[in-house]
Amino acid sequence: MQKKKRILLKVGSNTLTKETNNISRGKIEDIANQIAKLKDTCEFIIVSSGAIAVAKQFVKLESKQEDVFVKQALASIGQPHLIRIYQEIFREYGLLSSQCLLSYSDFEKLESKTNIVNTINVLVNNNYIPIINENDTVATDEIKFGDNDKLAALTASLLDVDLLIIATNTNGIYTKESFKNDTPITIKEVINFEDLRKEVVSSKSSHGSGGMESKIEAASLAKGANIETWIVNGLEDNFITNAFEDKIPFTKIK
Q1: SS3 of 97, please?
Q2: Residues whose CB falls within 8 Å of the CB of residue 18, separated by 6 or more in sequence, listed in order
Q3: What phi and psi, each to the nearest 5 degrees, are found at residue 173?
Q4: Are 13 and 49 within 8 A, CB to CB?
Q5: Contact at 8 Å (CB) between 189 and 127?
Q6: CA 116 to centroid of chain Cα atoms
């Protein structure tokens, strides 16, 4: 049997909400549909944001506490809803899924790292798709992963994946000049990382805590582990399969 290509797909809040204030079931269906089509040749691990965005659909928390604690409380409310939506939709496509919550400190301890690898390998080998999120309830502001970009890269490195796909709201990384001129041109392939850093425009996403800089840092971590990163427009339908078939502009960082 041919070994399946192991892909870590990182989906941010902007992608999951399709840049609205609500989680898009249609976008999760789009992801499920693509994974179902690719399941004979690829195995997927997903790092998904969106817990806070889901919670905001249901509740408005009143608190005099600092903003970070309110966000942690919202994450606690939203995480079960987020996983439920994934499980319901994935099941319709014949896909099994599971939840894994990780913290930054988990990547600093050998025992924790070994446990993560062993658990996720058991899940994947039994056709379960692990859906990973930061354990926001215990994370503090200082150790927040930039909208899970860093979490995705650390997890990709730990699990020895073949490809890291970061879904975002642009057609990859644009050249700085074209971005300034409002005529964005995608950098299709990156080999020299220092050249890439000069092109990055500093910006933050509307729902997430990342931006293109955090994606570059994530790609840098992945590159250190010899993992190729693709930065793809997740707002488009079929963005994974279209990227594989080279039908859309996106950035490959080798």
Answers
A1: strand
A2: 24, 26, 27, 235
A3: -100, 130
A4: yes
A5: no
A6: 17
